[in-house]
Design goal:
The chain has twelve helices and eleven strands. The chain is α/β, with parallel strands linked by helices and about 290 residues long. It folds into two domains: about 180 residues, 3-Layer(aba) Sandwich (Rossmann fold); about 90 residues. The strands form four sheets. The protein has a five-stranded parallel β-sheet with strand order 4-7-10-3-11. About 5% of the residues have low confidence.
Amino acid sequence: MNTLIPEERKQRHARTYNTHEQSLIQEGGYISPIPDLWEDILIGVVLKKPVLLKGPSGSGKTKLAQSISQFFNQPMHSVNCSVDLDAESLLGFKTIITKEGQTVIEFVEGPVVQAMKEGHILYIDEINMAKPETLPILHSVLDHRRMLTNPFTGEVIQAHADFAVIAAINEGYVGTSPMNEALKNRFISFSIPYLAGDQLREIIQAQFPSADEALVNLMMNINEDLKKQVMNGLLAEEAASVRSLLDAMALAEHIPVRRAVQYAIAEKLDDKMEQKLIMELVDTWVK
């Protein structure tokens, strides 16, 4: 076990280790599909390196960030990126309030400022959905300086010692753009693949402990077929999303499997041919 992780945290980590299929079931519910991935990411966080999680939608990036937050008992502030994200969304904004009978201007701190001051985790979801001109304001936060001069107040903020940054991206999706090199170079990057095999079965059984084994096997088989078609380039990556599979599983405990997959997986895709292919695959398993 690496000495970079404090002893008490290493002991907690050791209690979560499961040698079966080398899977790691973390306190926040994340299951690591790759040996050493979980601890390697923890070491990056302990070293105060901004961490970038790269992977398809539904691969568990947000669940991983939540698990890190629970592991360190460190609150997490989330930023959901979009083309509308601006400096105020990140840093905060000024507002007029009445205080002791007087009208005053007060600054309401945003997630970046709060996380920096309190020593919390800042989670930036879908960072490549933001406009490239918005994010350079974070450059000094993400590099060795770990500081920020708030343009709205003039305050110079030095990050708390425990402050950490985790970002996530879905590469190649509609509405995303490549991260510029100056931003990308401030992160250490980890690829987060989909779960498969016994690890996927573990998370299904953990979330649906009373589910019939035949239903679990059926959903596993359908998911395996979907992943094969994704690999063949016939389906978009989100067709094999673990999140979507779990949604389908939840529905399938109450309605026929075919309709559950249609609502939770097929209907999420825009391409009618891909929707049709998914339902044809389901029909090979559902008689």
